[in-house]
Amino acid sequence: MAVESKLNKPLGPDGGRRRICVVTQAIRRDADIDDTTAPGELARLFAENGDDVTLLWVAGRDAPSTDEAAAHRAEFEAASVKLEVLDRSDQLLPSLTTPESRSAALLHYLERSNHDLVYAPLEGGLAYYTLLAAETAAFAPPPIIVFAHAPEEWVHEADKALMESIEAIAIAYMERYCAEMADRTICASATLRRWMLSKGWKVRKAAVMPMLPLSAGIGRAGAQPAPRRENARELAVFSGARFRDGLTLLCDALDLLAPSAPAGLTVTAFAPFGKIMGEHSGGLLVRRAEKWPFKLKLLPAADLNAKLDYVERHGALAVIPSLAASTGAAVAACIAAGLPFLATNVGANAETWDAETRQPQLAEPEAGQLARSVLAALDEPPRPRRIDMLGRCRQAWLDTRDASPPARKKRRQAPTSPLVSIVMAHRNRPLFLKQAIAAIEAQTYDRLELVLVDDGSDQDEARRLLDALAPTFRQRGWRILRRPHKHLGAARNAGVRAARGELILFVDDDNALFPEAVDHFVRAMAASGADICTAFQLIFYEDFVPADRADGLIQYLPLGGPDALGLIHNVYGDANAMMRRGVFSQIGFLTEEPGYAMHDWEFFARASLAGLKIRPIPKPLYWYRSKPDGMFRTSNWYDNRRPVIETFGSHRFDDARSLYQLAIAQNTARSEIDSARENLRYIPAYRKYLELCDLEPNSDAAVERLAAIASSTGRPDTAAILLERAPAKTGEDAAEEVEWAGGSRSLAYQALKSARLLTSRVSDLPLLLVARDGGGIFLRPHAEGSVAASLDHQFPPFFRRLEATVEVAHADAPAIDFGLALARPDQIIDWQRDTAAQTIVFSGWTTVRDKFARHTLTVALRARRKMPLSIVVAVRFAGMPNGFPTNAFFRKLMLFSD
């Protein structure tokens, strides 16, 4: 009771409930816990314990539809979790298609919210700009707790894949920064933490905490567990569709196991499918199964909890054949559920395994040993001792809310406001110059000087403006330097040499600072200790600066690194940046090559390669004018990059290995990378598998093709199950919804209870009831006409036939007509008209007069449908009602694929 009162006491800053935001990149109920379900589980856990919880779904390219979002929203609302979908920001371009845009959108969201605590996954670097804003004093966010399970670089190493995109390199850079700068970093395993340290990440204080499914009831099957047997006859494969999950290793082991496999053995794997070395993972299993004498089942996608339920109900042995593991979640979950399992001795699997459970020793990731270990476990299934790891894990996560995160590094405040020298180069743009100077005059920071360098203006209007400005400049102590035309780099260097300030701020003459810009730059330099600070910008295209910042968008999102990307494009920031005077004595001045337009990029690259600290301020601080006649748009692409290439060519830098990977991956033949797919080309009988590889792995077309392949290889049961795939369920729903029996399927209570009444009749007694324990659906006939109910979407795609077992279950009931139909989910049926004409198929009315005798109704489709259909059940009085009870039951509904 003491613990409960502690958890439920008001802990928010205003004395109310603690406001927690849990961030997620995706909500998929068909993935293992080490993918995307952890944030949702965490949100539910906090809500269960009295917190005001928002689950923020930062949607990227795969933003959910309105209906999909509404369905998920209702699901989480039932758990007292508010789901918000973040798929845009009013400060950015409409779609969040890059990791930078998603991170910036999260920052903009948090700036407007009032959360007390934020939990964000490390994966994807979502918290990058929020943490950068904290470091540069642009925003004071609530404490940010980052939790990690599979960083981008670890994933590539574990899957033996090279970094083949600049997005992957950017994400890896963002993730490392988040791990190092978060108020608290939590790793899913000590293995993962050691990996981070081996890469030079500064995460020695990172906590280690398992990421089990956090919902209560893990491993408690929705149906009764299978009776204990002396041996096991089914292997349930806990392997995803990634190389690191070990599906190929398992297939190698099963090849060796096949000659001595016990009779009646079944291998069961779960969707979703993917590609392993280019080959469809389901196709890989079916192809390799051509050599196996045992049954193969490919079941619908299920989360980890649903897989545990399956193992318990079927008395199966869970097999976890990982080649690399950063979480050990499957091993820990099996131990928590007390289920027999066999896992490979790799990474976090070994770390999570507990000898007290009396499980067999972990197997080395080698086909022969795995085969021997599987065979031994089948012959003598371990009787595991259940350990309550879940309770400890839940409490540890709950404790993270109360533990005070380490204080952020104290900002370095200068004893006095340093003098800032604004250096501005100008040539023949008097209209823009006046706007730029007006913006400087409006600055809220007092200690500044403007050094205006005229680079040989030869237009009369420009010269007259300089003459008119001279007296005001002298009065303010500002300077105008008139020089012969030597181009931008030379003009800026002259301004730096003439400047007196400790801090130098470059400002282009066609841009305009926001009034608070200099103040923000100075604070960012002091807070971060950076040598150079760049900033976000708002872009505009007109001759005059917009009056309202709402008219501009942030289109350039510099990261500040890594140098590997700095060779490809300017990741550091725009030239309108502040730097310490000492930077020039360390790395020299800007290049003075005539006509060169990328002085900022080359200069920042030189600074970063020299070890200087560059930090972008993730906040727009000025208007950036984009014009077709600007230097950037009129200069030569090759000429702009040549000095950058030369700069990188003269330096050694740690990020070069990412560039090597990128160059190799992008210039290696696809056939070499996707070697498993390529090998299929050389065996004519495997052409069907090759064609499968070209389809999206989980599309209807791919599932149909995979089922056809399974059927052609003598596995009709595998094909039937594939074609019966229904929308994924989880937890108890997944355990109870389906009872598999070869090519047929029985709808269980979880499916039947979705029945809704179609006919509105006034009645003192309920017209529709759903009974547990095989009781079926009860419909009460009515004197005014038919009574019907619909099970929406419960007849899955590609099925052929439906059978209903019906019964009149009262000795005094009158004769009753029963009807069965399939209809489109959107079909509205008028029961006063011909039912057959309004449905896809109708059984007709079958009159049942005898009592307690079961009869069968059947409907069959001429051709399989690719969309789910609704099942309609109906009853009516065959004659006049006699006033006695009318117990009319649909006892069982069976679906068939033949």
From TrEMBL:
Gene3D superfamilies tied to this protein: Glycogen Phosphorylase B, Spore Coat Polysaccharide Biosynthesis Protein SpsA, Chain A
Originating organism: Mesorhizobium tamadayense
Protein name as catalogued: Glycosyltransferase
Organism phylogeny: Bacteria, Pseudomonadati, Pseudomonadota, Alphaproteobacteria, Hyphomicrobiales
InterPro entries (UniProt xref): DUF6212, Glyco_trans_2-like, Glyco_trans_4-like_N, Nucleotide-diphossugar_trans
Keywords, alphabetical: Transferase
Chain ranges of the Glycosyltransferase subfamily 4-like N-terminal domain: 40-210
Highest taxon listed in the record's lineage: Bacteria
Gene Ontology MF, one: hexosyltransferase activity
CDD domains reported in the protein's UniProt record: Glyco_tranf_GTA_type (cd00761)
Ranges for domain Glycosyltransferase 2-like: 421-587
SUPFAM superfamilies: Nucleotide-diphospho-sugar transferases, UDP-Glycosyltransferase/glycogen phosphorylase
